[in-house]
Amino acid sequence: MAKNRAVGGSSHAERVFRVQRAFTQLGGRAHGPGALARAAELDDSTVYRILQSGVHQGIFVREGRGLYRLGSAAPQLGLKALAHSPAPDAAHALLEALRRATGGLAFLYLLAPFGGAHRQCADMAVGDSDLTELGMTPRAVQTVEHSLRVGAAGRAILAYLPETIQSEVLDRPVPTEAGPGAFRDDVRLLASLDRIRARGYALGHEECAAGWNECAAPVTWDGLVMGSVLVMKPKQVMTRCPVTVIGAVEQTAAALADLGRGQPATPDGNDSRMK
Question: Which PROSITE patterns match (predicted)?
Answer without folding.
Answer: ICLR_ED (PS51078)
